[in-house]
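lol ok so funny story. i was supposed to be doing the assay writeup but got distracted and ended up predicting the structure for this chain instead. priorities right. anyway since i did it might as well share w the group, maybe its usefull for someone
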Amino acid sequence: MHARPPVIAALVMLLAAALRVGAQQAAPDRFEQNVVAFEAADKASPPPKGQILFVGSSTIQRWDTARYFPDLRIINRGISGSELADSLRYVDRIVLPYEPRVIVVYAGDNDISAGWISEQVAVTFERFTRAVHAKLPQARILYIAIKPSILRWTQIDRMRSANAIIRAYCERDDRLAFVDFDTLMLGWDDRPRRELFVEDGLHLSPQGYQLWTTVIRPYLVGHDVAEAKR
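and the output, tada:
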């Protein structure tokens, strides 16, 4: 069954003002050039509808989906430096036109680093899913949890809090799935594994992307999200 009423609807009301303030802190058109470039590429070579779409921040933008998923047609619309709020802001231009059957989202990392509280990130994700489902009610949305990283380890508590709220929301809607790499990315010392990151301690190394690819592949190869959750 589809989730209703929204799990975190009360938070939407409580944090609406805070969200407006947060949105004003970043220039709303700071990624306009990126979106225009996507639109130009689509005009020159329109991608087929009903495919798999990756959206989010630099972790998505850096993901060589053609290499890691050579058997799948994936449209990558990641924007380096973007926040989850940017995926929501541009949903009409970088998500809906493709009418994707599956949407993979990784964003929230930069939001927490920019000072957004956990609840704000969760509310933004809910708003994103509702914007998508208002026009594409059958679309499946896979949220990759905010990853633990070496560079931003001091922010892990807020990241985990946001993840917990988003996980609870996803569990109540069979069109949504939540994948958490927290445990898989930690070593014996319960700290992020160095080999999964490039030198900056934030972005994934080839080993990191291979790990992520292996885990999320079942969600993308024709299974329903509800089935892949099992």
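Residues 9-25+51-229 form a domain with the Rossmann fold fold (CATH 3.40.50.1110). Confidence is low (pLDDT under 50) at residues 16-24, 224-230.
back to the writeup now i swear
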